């Protein structure tokens, strides 16, 4: 199964929950803390982590298409 992640930088509030939940997929910009997408199509073995990261984003800035 292919997963495609997109992030809305305008919605991101820089909390960092995504980075703590799935650090292989998300990072934070050093200037403003907003999300940086490292892997727009992560491997299947970390899909559950990505789903958790989406669930803990208070700003709903991450979208996943499967």
Automatic annotation (TrEMBL):
Q: Which UniProt keywords apply?
A: 3Fe-4S, Electron transport, Iron, Iron-sulfur, Metal-binding, Transport
Check the record and name the InterPro entries matching this protein: 3Fe4S_ferredoxin, 4Fe4S_Fe-S-bd, Fe-S_cluster_ET
Does the record carry Protease as a key word? Answer: no
Q: Give residue ranges for domain 4Fe-4S ferredoxin-type.
A: 3-31
State its cofactor.
[3Fe-4S] cluster
Which parts of the chain span the membrane according to its record? none
Give an example GO molecular function: iron ion binding
What does the UniProt function comment say about this protein? Ferredoxins are iron-sulfur proteins that transfer electrons in a wide variety of metabolic reactions.
What name goes with this protein?
Answer: Ferredoxin
């Amino acid at each position: 199964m292919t997963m495609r992640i997109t992030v809305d930088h305008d919605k991101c509030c820089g909390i960092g929950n995504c980075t703590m939940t799935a650090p292989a997929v998300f990072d934070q910009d050093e200037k403003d803390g907003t999300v940086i997408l490292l892997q727009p199509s992560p491997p299947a073995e970390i899909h559950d982590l990505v789903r958790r990261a989406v669930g803990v984003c208070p700003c709903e800035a991450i979208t996943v298409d499967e």
